[in-house]
Amino acid sequence: MSYSLGQVVYTTSSGSNGTVSQGVQQPFEISTITGIKETNITLQCVVYPNPTNDYIKLKIVNYKTGKLFYQLYDINGKLLENKKAEDNETNISMGNLVSGTYLLKVTDNQKEVKTFKIIKK
After folding, report:
1. Residues pairing with 7 in the sheet
2. Residue range(s) defining the domain that contains residue 51
3. Does residue 57 lie within any of the structural domains?
């Protein structure tokens, strides 16, 4: 079966295992960066330089850091690091990671507080 959509032509093949469309790009975008509003917290993620090569700095303002944890994920959702934010400023090493996009999620008692998008070159 062949379809024409404007200038795009694609073919759909069906079989016992499902359907495949050839010639169509099916992009997706993850754009939801979330946070909760119930807490009185100001978080900053300062990256020097941006994009970074070596480390990022998580700066926590107006909050007890003893309850906060951070998780660093690669773009595929694989957990790379899970640690407690000990101080108001926490250095997170990225020197051993390959170039790419990462997500840094900050949680309080397993509730997501804020997520940052980090670019490593």
Report:
1. none
2. 42-120
3. yes
